[in-house]
């Protein structure tokens, strides 16, 4: 049944297609680029279709190549998992997840206890970074949770969590802000005007002139720094409903003018095709999809304060 399957050529194709480079595939497989090229041409001849478009600056997949990569990558991953399971001492299942520092600190890590309760044999290896990792090239990462509305082509997006923005402070800061203009806390990402525009939108919707003149404002480079400043009573913060949900739920922060919201974006869970069949990744994806479904992304409910 499998006697005529060109297994070596398929393994070579998977590396070249995933890395988008014959040279990098040759380095990974410890062969020459010429050997990779010969294997790819033999596979294309065997199938009767072109798998790559060759150009001076590299190679790109054709539609047929993209379809084959999705199948072959998943199949090789399944084989690798089956072989790991047969070892005398199989290692603990690990799922590698990458996301931003703020999402990891403010949303994901506080909830991971529930994942470990459901899957005590799994381990989440968390890489918090602002760097965008190409999931099709980096086989060491199973799942990415990214911020933004666009979904990269060729990836699966099994779950997303939308957000909106509001203004929050400690109960004392919220009461004081009703009487006098407060200190404003904002986030200043590199090359981003998200919070600057958000503050202007929110003040316009709330019919407040807080931004007139030179308002007292403090800037932080990370969202979790800004939230910690608000929790410490330093002022009112413009914050994502996703990021602030735990602080509001515990009563540390409460919304100022709860009915005034400005639209945000969303956090999307992504993985390369085939990775969803990796057992630890499959468990994590199912768990976070349930967590996203249960999250209130519009306005967290605050506990009453005395």
Q: What does this protein structure show overall?
A:
The chain is α/β, with parallel strands linked by helices. It folds into three domains: 7-86, Arc Repressor Mutant, subunit A, CATH 1.10.10.10; 93-162 and 266-294, Periplasmic binding protein-like II (D-Maltodextrin-Binding Protein, domain 2, 3-Layer(aba) Sandwich); 163-264, Periplasmic binding protein-like II (D-Maltodextrin-Binding Protein, domain 2, 3-Layer(aba) Sandwich), CATH 3.40.190.10. 43% of the residues lie in helices and 22% in strands. It has ten helices and eleven strands. The strands form two sheets. Strands 3, 4, 5, 6, 7, 8, 9, 10 and 11 form a nine-stranded mixed sheet that branches. Helix 5 (101-118) links the parallel strand 3 (93-99) and strand 4. Helix 1 packs across helix 3 and helix 1 (7-19) packs across helix 4 (63-86). The radius of gyration is 24 Å and the shape is elongated. The relative contact order is 0.15.
